[in-house]
Amino acid sequence: MSDEKGSAIVVIGGGISGLTTAIEAAEAGQRSVIVERNPYLGGRVAQLNRYFPKLCPPYCGLEVNFKRIKQNPKISVYTSAEIESVQGSEGNFKVKIKINPRYVNTKCTACGDCVKVCPIERSNSFNFGIDKTKAIYLPHELSYPMRFVIDASPGVCPGKSCSKCVSVCKYNAIDLDMKAETVEINASSVVYATGWSPYDAAKMDNLGFGKVKNVVTNMMMERMAAPNGPTKGKILRPSDNKQVKTVAFVQCAGSRDENHLAHCSSVCCMASLKQATYVRESDPDTKAFIYYIDLRAPGRYEDFLKKIQADASVVMIKGKVAKIEEDAETLDPIVTVEDIAGGKKITQKVDMVVLATGMEPSLKTANVSTNVKLDENGFVDADAQAAGIYASGVAKRPNDVTTSLQDATSAALKGIQSAVRR
């Protein structure tokens, strides 16, 4: 299938950077196409409980952006889609997109009757495996598009041998015969807004993830604290669902480490400071310990750091965590850390540990046939690209949401300039 609507800006990635790039370009009159591999838009921001600088829930901003997309005929969206190839030059790119079947068509009203009869469960990737969904599921409660999707991965949905969801759907919205299709887009420019993935915490053997039951990652913590998360906003430790009273935050879990991620992930310090407020707000008797190498709170965020430092129930210790073990009886994590200021090794038993795992660029491990050039850390090297190839947000470097939005506006302007030069 070939796109015949004329040249567009193709934005690869439907997270906050990709959405902003496409929307800003379209509202300036340039046709934009969003290509997102997930069955929903919103990216990592949709998984947060709150984000800087206002510490507001992400749905308030995402809902506005989804409305802007719906109202703008110059924006096309492909979810559950992946780039097969990008060929050509500025003003004359040919972008091939594979659209994978979601097995639920546009007739879906998200009524949920299908979920009630589905017998199969799957790990909920949106909540980082903390809970489960059925094989047919809505990615999250503000999912865009607001449509269910079937996980047809091996060993999940058995397809027509079950078909209970098909039988119960009164809108004929479920199509188990749906096939993948390929679309070719004529593009004046291509913007990579491919974002990031949390670094695999299991690769750091000494930090106990996957072995010590009550060690979680910072993104898992975001889902725990979120009202629409697996624990409905209650911070409960995984082993026994007990309300936590003491939490240790381990900074630079994989970042600034030549054996893992050589770069600083930029936002981890602020994320842990923010999450310390989640802990403190959950119960006035809670206590948080933050173990860090350096605390980085640039510019206006320094005031937030000072606010957290003023809380006597948040203890900040400069030192690198050597290991995390488990108390066999209580399942409490035991943190061993070098206290640099005190000049000694200390151990601390807590209810739960949160690892501030770093940002790994999604393109680093993606199987995408493109002509984009990456730097030594796997981020898009903005200065090395051919004309008409741009990047936005964390695809270029670790950034917070505010900086990513600013960068996305810049990418939209560059994309428009490529269209004008066409």
Jot down its keywords.
8 helices; alpha/beta; FAD/NAD(P)-binding domain; five-stranded parallel beta sheet; oxidoreductase; flavoprotein; 3 domains; 422 residues; seven-stranded mixed beta sheet; 4Fe4S_Fe_S_CS; FAD/NAD-bd_sf; metal-binding
Fold and architecture overview:
The chain is of the alpha/beta class. The strands form six sheets. Strands 1, 2, 3, 4, 5, 10 and 21 form a seven-stranded mixed beta sheet that branches. The protein has a five-stranded parallel beta sheet with strand order 12-19-13-14-15. The chain has a three-stranded antiparallel beta sheet with strand order 16-17-18, with no helix packed on it. The radius of gyration is 23 Å and the shape is globular. Helix 6 (268-282) links the parallel strand 13 (246-253) and strand 14. The model has no long low-confidence stretch (mean pLDDT 94). It has three domains: 8-100 and 180-197 and 360-421, FAD/NAD(P)-binding domain, CATH 3.50.50; 113-168, no CATH class; 200-357, FAD/NAD(P)-binding domain, CATH 3.50.50. The protein has helices spanning 16-27, 59-71, 113-117, 164-168, 218-225, 268-282, 302-309, 401-421, and strands spanning 8-12, 32-35, 75-78, 81-89, 92-99, 121-123, 132-134, 136-137, 149-150, 181-192, 196-198, 215-217, 246-253, 287-292, 314-318, 321-326, 333-339, 344-349, 352-357, 359-361, 389-391.
